[in-house]
Amino acid sequence: MELRTLPRLTIAIAALLATSPLIAQASADPALIRARRILTASPLIDGHNDLAWVIREDKRAPRNVDAYDLRKRTSGDTDLQRLRSGHVGAQFWSVFIPGDIKDSGYARVQLEQIDIARRMIERYPEALTFATTSRDITAAFRTGKVASLLGMEGGHAIENSLGALRAYFRLGVRYMTLTHNVTLDWADAAMDVPRHNGLTPFGREVVREMNRLGMIVDISHVTPKIMHDVLDLAEAPVMFSHSSAKALTDHPRNVPDDVLRRLDGNGGVVMVTFIPAFVSQPVADWELRLSRLTSGKPTAETARIGAEFAASNPKPVATLKDVADHVDHVRRMAGVNHVGIGSDFWGDPEMPTGLEDASRFPYLFAELIRRGWSDADLVKLAGGNMLRVLRRTELVAARIQGQRSPSIATMKRGAGEAR
């Protein structure tokens, strides 16, 4: 580059900034500056990201961790640069498997997903580091790396075996969502037909064994009755890895106020999710109408009906402010010590406006600053509450392990199949 071109380039950059209100406004926004300062000083812990499944399903190179290059901008919502821009300090990578793949073998697919997540973490040692404890998170944050933990999404993967549960823990899994969208032999899913009216005796044994291991009991995806049963039983804090407030958006996946009010007694945390249908009633209503139109129809007809419905009924859009409303509500009902962030980024192009990808977390914190949140409370929201849950879970596990041996209960002996 010739030196005489520098003034011209400088003028061009200045002109671009002057004619780009969004860039200029963002760079000068005091709330955003303050949000970034807070997140630079304390770790943001995101409770749920489905990147491992995105890699598995990638059309260009399915399951190929090397081909899905996080050092470049990906076609999805998560890569190394966007994690850095979003100030993510720790990430629970979901090792999700669907509940409708029983014929493929739940355990086989679960092990494959753990393998994908572990290989993904190992491929980027300059940016990611495998973590299993609260100390690992704080150590990673000091080195500028993203502490990478694993969370299982659905107890179907243990195939009614506490031995399998223990094996997954040894592989690094640190929370398990009791169900996904399919009711199990021992627990009812919120998005399926309930069969048990709560936890069965074996389901109770699953919770007890998770507490003994030090695996956090995640009660996103379950019915309110299961939520209450777990809160009655759990010796350690629970978590909702990716749920929002049912009082604001009436969706089965959200948390009712009577459950939120119990979290102070348990010490658990609701990690508010960004999924549009969970944070916006208009979006939830739109999706419900569409599901009723397509229920029971063949796949080809479902696509046609969906296209026609969307053409005549444009889908509403959720926003960052909708998510902030849910964060505010959880704080109001449960208390500031019991709220966190669980984005559930999974490559969805329809995430809320303002929270489109993993770089956007500071903008949510800036909105909460404008609503009057203090720095101390934002530190709790970012990761302080989740760190407390992890530490308490570890302490409870150490105590229980000194009191009882691993459970040998099965569905047929010692725990029973149902109430």
Can you describe what's shown?
The protein has 419 residues and is an alpha/beta fold. It has one domain: TIM Barrel (Alpha-Beta Barrel). Helix content is 47%, strand content 11%. It contains 18 helices and nine strands. The strands form two sheets. Strands 1, 2, 3, 4, 5 and 6 form a six-stranded parallel beta sheet that branches. It has a three-stranded parallel beta sheet with strand order 7-8-9. Helix 9 links the parallel strand 5 (173-177) and strand 6 (216-218). Helix 3 (30-41) crosses helix 17 (361-370) and helix 16 (320-334) crosses helix 17. It starts with a helix and ends in an 18-residue tail after the last helix. The relative contact order is 0.14. The model is unreliable at 1-20 (pLDDT under 50).
What's the CATH architecture? Alpha-Beta Barrel
Strand content: 5-15%
Looking at the structure, what is the overall shape? globular
Q: What is the N-to-C order of secondary-structure elements (H for helix, E for strand)?
A: HHHEHHEHEHEHEHEHEHHEHHHHEHH
Radius of gyration: 22 Å
Number of domains: 1
Unreliably modeled segments:
1-20
Largest sheet: 6 strands, parallel
Helix content range? 40-55%
Intertermini distance:
77 Å
At the fourth CATH level, what is the homologous superfamily? Answer: Metal-dependent hydrolases
- Rounded mean pLDDT score: 93
The count of DSSP E runs of length 2 or more, i.e. the number of strands, is 9
Number of helices: 18
Sheet/helix structural class: alpha/beta
* CATH fold annotation: TIM Barrel
CATH C-level class: Alpha Beta
